[in-house]
């Protein structure tokens, strides 16, 4: 999932990230959610940043949707269905935010719920 955010530097030494996958997923959601929050706050001065943040968030959700759609995914079927439904919701609501007819608050709430689930604090 880290591939959706821009690299920190093109010329640094590449070392494998040895953190658990849940931690990596949490960190990706946290960075994406922060980007979305900041972009919304500055939407009047920098609308392209909002469009970019919405796109990054939607790409993250597309990756999740593709992952839970795989037969080999080990998550329980009801949870997989909920995650896929959330992807569809995120896609629809992102369009509404982009057209400035809605705020991204619910997208931020959904991401936060996923982050709580990844930390074992209850989520989706």
Would you tell me the overall average pLDDT? 88
Shape summary: globular
Largest sheet: none
Strand content: under 5%
What integer value in Å does the Rg equal? 15 Å
Question: How are helices and strands ordered from N to C?
Answer: HHHH
Parts with pLDDT < 50 across at least 5 consecutive residues = none
Work out the helicity level: 55-70%
Supply the number of structural domains.
1
User: Span from first to last CA?
Assistant: 19 Å
Number of helices: 4
Oligomer: single chain
Structural class: mainly alpha
Q: Give me the count of strands.
A: 0
Written description of the protein model:
This protein is an all-alpha fold and 124 residues long. It has 4 helices and no strands. The protein has one domain (20-118). The two termini are 19 Å apart. The mean pLDDT is 88.
Salient structural properties:
124 residues; 4 helices; mainly alpha
